[in-house]
Design goal:
It is built from six helices and nine strands; from the N terminus they run αββαβααββαβαβββ. It has a nine-stranded mixed sheet with strand order 7-1-2-6-3-5-4-8-9, sandwiched between helices. The chain starts with a helix and ends with a strand.
């Protein structure tokens, strides 16, 4: 517990300076930054060698924070998240108060309410959403642990959180898109 507290403080310090972190999420290891800092978001695109037209998602700590970063959270989103058995990212229309370069061309953004205790505490204490994208170079396999992490990624971030990934059979989250008319489309199971 004490270890987690120290890691949260170190991580927040890096995030506030616009740095990149490598951290254990509720799914896989992720590369993250302050989701409201466009320069930091650009650094992730550069590190991943990824076109900035390919959107990334961000994590929030709870429903209350989610409501601050989406113009209108459709009612159906609450039901999906309440009954989801695994980590679920929902793509929302009209995101608010995040870096412009995080928002997809169709004015949407994937947001996940973090279930992992470390992530939830980190985001709650940071008071802003954090970008979460798989810790790989675009097109390469997603590493399941730090040992599989590429040297390029490890050296490209400003801080590696010194905590284990809690989810041992980590897989990327489900992705669901909710349209303005509340239509639900499964993008990734």
């Amino acid at each position: 517990m004490e270890n987690q507290k120290i890691e949260i403080e170190k991580t927040i310090d890096i995030l506030k300076k616009g740095g990149l972190i490598l951290y254990p999420t509720d799914t896989v290891w992720g590369i993250g930054c302050d989701a409201t800092n466009a320069e930091a978001v650009d650094k992730i695109y550069a590190l991943k060698k990824r076109a900035d037209s390919k959107a990334m998602l961000c994590l929030v700590s709870d429903f209350k924070m989610l409501q601050q970063y989406v113009e209108e959270v459709p009612e159906v989103a609450y039901d999906i998240l309440k009954y989801a058995t695994k980590a679920t990212t929902i793509i929302y229309d009209r995101p608010l108060r995040v870096a412009e370069n995080l928002i997809a061309e169709d004015n949407t953004l994937g947001i996940r309410v973090a279930r992992d205790p470390f992530c939830s505490k980190l985001i709650r204490k940071f008071k802003r959403p954090i970008v979460s994208t798989s810790a790989n170079i675009s097109g390469k396999p997603t590493p399941r642990n730090l040992q599989e992490m590429s040297k390029e990624i490890l050296e490209g971030v400003d801080y590696v959180v010194n905590l284990p990934l809690q989810n041992k059979d980590a897989k990327p989250s489900s992705i669901i898109k909710i349209g303005g008319d509340s239509t639900v489309k499964i993008i990734r199971k």
